Amino acid sequence: MLEIKNVTKIFNKELSQDERRIALDDLSITINDGDFITVIGGNGSGKSTLMNSISGVFPLDSGQIIIDGEDITNMPEFERAKFLGRVFQDPRMGTCGNMSILENLELSYRRGNKRGLHWGFTKENEEKYVELLKGLNLGLESRLEQKVGLLSGGQRQAVTLLMSTLKIPKLLLLDEHTAALDPKTAKIVLNLTNEIVTRENITTLMITHNMNDAIKYGNRLIMLDHGHIILDISGEEKQKLTIKDLLQKFEDSDVTADDSLLLSK
């Protein structure tokens, strides 16, 4: 589903060799259809740069990104929206706070469609949204007209997750999407994530600073350090993985685990 071939991204290229930062360093990985990959690494390891490079926020210095056989390396960010779903760390991103839940869902459902002069809302779609919102178990199905900006962070993030998967994307990017939530709400959103991704068999990359979550969710785990993949495990090997194993990998690789990773033990 996703091929990343020899991708390099350098920041501050105009500065001296010592001052420039190589965020991704000739990185290559193949992600199979249906993979649910958790991505872990210390600060500055390249996790968010990888997400932003896939979504088109940052142009690459070299390499290729191919989704479902189509080379999107030079495709602008807005054109990649038809392939991708994304949920950000900040619950305010990905939704329009001044618009209702219904309006946000309708806009998301029409992503990638040709625009025309016809009525935007249908009873059929509204009934569909009500059923989907019921599945969140947050009581939002009776609040379709409420502005999204008035929702709690967890409610808003759950709506964003629903929006990003209304039209099943070829690739779902979850960029520390529970980091800004309290532990109880984060657990609810993670369980919803796992349920939707598993049910729809969505190819997914999920960045997390929580080692427990990295081990618990998904069928595959990769660890980044200074723009390199230093660990890539899946299947039974991942199922047997422990936090002690991950910490040992940090130690063996001479990588410093940042505070958020250590606190997630």
Question: What does this 3D model show about the protein?
Answer:
The protein is of the alpha/beta class and about 260 residues long. The chain folds into two domains: about 180 residues, 3-Layer(aba) Sandwich (Rossmann fold), CATH 3.40.50.300; about 60 residues, no CATH class. It contains ten helices and ten strands. A six-stranded mixed β-sheet has the order 6-7-8-3-9-10, with helices on both faces. A four-stranded antiparallel β-sheet has the order 2-1-4-5, covered by helices on one side. The longest helix has 18 residues. The protein is globular. It starts with a strand and ends with a helix. About 35% of the residues are buried.
Coarse structural class: alpha/beta
* Total number of strands: 10
CATH 2nd-level architecture of the largest domain: 3-Layer(aba) Sandwich
Mean pLDDT across the residues is: 86
Kindly provide the name of the CATH class of the largest domain: Alpha Beta
| Total separate domains | 2
Which outline best applies? globular
Characteristics of this structure?
single chain; 265 residues; alpha/beta; Rossmann fold; 2 domains; 6-stranded mixed β-sheet; 4-stranded antiparallel β-sheet; globular
Q: In terms of topology, how is this protein built?
A:
Elements lengths: L1 E10 L9 E11 L4 E6 L5 H9 L6 E6 L2 E2 L5 H4 L3 E4 L13 H9 L13 H12 L18 H13 L5 E5 L7 H18 L3 E4 L3 H6 L3 E6 L2 E7 H5 L3 H10 L6 H5 L2
Parallel strand pairs: 3-8, 3-9, 6-7, 7-8
Antiparallel strand pairs: 1-2, 1-4, 4-5, 9-10
Helix pairs in contact: 3-5, 5-6
